[in-house]
Amino acid sequence: MKKWFNFLVCLTVALGFISLGNAEMREPMEGAGWHYPWKDTYSEWKPGNMKFDEKLFDQDVTAAYGWEAEDVDKIKDLIPPSLYTIMKSPDAWGPRRINVTAYMENGGSLWKRFVKATEQYKGTAKIDKVGWLRGYKAGCPFPEPKTGAEVLWNFKKHFSEDDRILGTVTIITNRGGQVRYQTSDGNLMYFDGRLQISPKPLYEPNPKDELRIDVYANAHPYEMRGTLSVITQFNNPDKDDSFWLYLPALRRVRRLSAAQRTDRLPGGQDLMWENFDVFNGNPTNYTAKLLGQKEMLAVHNGYPKGEWINGKHLAGPNDYYQKVNVHILELTPKDPDFPFSKMMLYVDSNTWMPYYGEWYDKEGKLYIFSIFQYVPGKNGIFCPVVMNHVDMQAIHSTGYCVTNPKYNVGLTPAYFKVDNLKKEYPSR
To answer: Do residues 339 and 331 make contact, with C-beta atoms less than 8 angstroms apart?
Structure first.
């Protein structure tokens, strides 16, 4: 009897190790890596000033779907239609796998400040009769949203940094698998919702009543070096965003009209200003309908180092996904001449950050798809280490892999002046 007991104990322990070993394994994907073609500061992945927990690099995988794994049909209801289409068509889009791991709770000093600010300013932010947010300072404006407009504004004021310098390798892939590379920095600063860098929670003085400034600065290829796209958003629903484009070849600064919000960024990317950060539109230009809240699979605590496969679409093909609660919005443009019929937005129900976005053309067909894959730092900030914007109709994609991200470094409006940016990002 004792021998049988010892045998069963040994067998149980052995099976436990086997099960644990399987759970810990993320199967490698052939060709996935950092394939940057030039030797410069973007040539390798760097964590920047983000401090990532070591356990993020080796998470226990409890299930895997897609390429050389379980049929993605088993999780069809847990992912958006666009991602399902991509994963069911590896011949067109390339291999992609969802590795399911445990959800890591939000934490860190800045997340705690966001939660505190939400409680401190609860009830002070209101949506006026035209649909614009008034009285907002910091935190989540509507911790218990009941309408689509409230969810949309929660997204617009989602948990985020005060400022950032975000180095990215851009991988542009066409239908035939031909690849073009760009390198650029996507830098920004916020004027409200600030949690760390003074002045906070509002950046004051703010004589122009600005909400946010972005710059998209190109370093490669050679012919695009020093190209600058600068956009400023204002705390005024009737004031169009300000767009400036500096073209080194012409040695001139060109002002763009608000009508060009849906034009693609330079270099043949699948990114436009309207879907920058998944959705970057003016909330008053859309009717927001809340379709509900559900559990989905998304990259909340992914693999910190971006990867891609040369000649295949979409970066981050073998990432860690978690079950997360999301709010789903349907955004319908009020302008009948707008080139899209609707936009679907999937946002985290706690941080209000975007995971997925889907744009439909005037005929109601899926056109542009966006997917953001995040990794949290120890301070709580989420870095979108992989971003993809995809033209579903042309089978064309633009992937972005982040390297050397720098958060909350103290950027000011003076940094975003074109004359200063020309010094920061000199042209050829």
So the answer is: no
Give one word for 68, left, alpha or beta, with left for phi > 0 and alpha for psi -120 to 50: left
Q: How far apart are the C-alpha atoms of 31 and 145, rounded to whole Å? A: 44
Task: Please give the structure tokens belonging to residue 427.
Answer: 């042209």
pLDDT, tens digit, 9 for 90 and up, residues 250-260: 888 888 777 77
- Is the distance from CB of 357 to CB of 279 less than 8 angstroms? yes
The DSSP code sequence of 217-269 is EEEESGGGTT-EEEEEEES-TTSPPEEEEEETTTTEEEEEPGGGGGSBPTTT-
Domains along the sequence of the chain with CATH: 109-424 (2.50.20.10)
Q: Rounded to whole angstroms, how far apart are CA atoms 202 and 138?
A: 8
Q: What is the mean pLDDT of residues 207-225?
A: 94
CA-based nearest residue to 243, from 255, 261, 260, 227: 255
- Rounded to whole angstroms, the Cα distance separating 403 from 370 reads 20
* Nearest in space to 318 (alpha carbons), one of 104, 72, 95, 77: 95
> Per-residue pLDDT tens for 148-179?
999 999 999 999 999 999 999 999 999 999 99
Residues 45-61 have pLDDT tens digits of 999 999 999 999 999 99
Q: Identify the helix (H) or strand (E) that includes residue 117.
A: helix 109-120
Eight-state DSSP code of residue 103: P
414 SS3 class: helix
The encoded tokens of residue 145 equal: 């949203």
CA distance 273 to 250: 22
Neighbouring C-alpha atoms within 13 Å toward the C-beta of 382: 26
Give the per-residue pLDDT at 252. Answer: 86
pLDDT, tens only, 361-420: 999 999 999 999 999 999 999 999 999 999 999 999 999 999 999 999 999 999 999 999
Query: What are the φ and ψ backbone dihedral angles of 250, each rounded to 5 degrees?
Result: -95, -10
Instruction: Look up residue 175 and give its two tokens.
Output: 């239908």
Q: With contact defined as beta carbons under 8 Å apart, do 148 and 290 qualify?
A: yes
Integer angstrom CA distances of residue 310 from 67, 134, 172, 235: 17, 47, 10, 42
User: How many CB atoms sit inside 10 A of residue 264's CB?
Assistant: 15
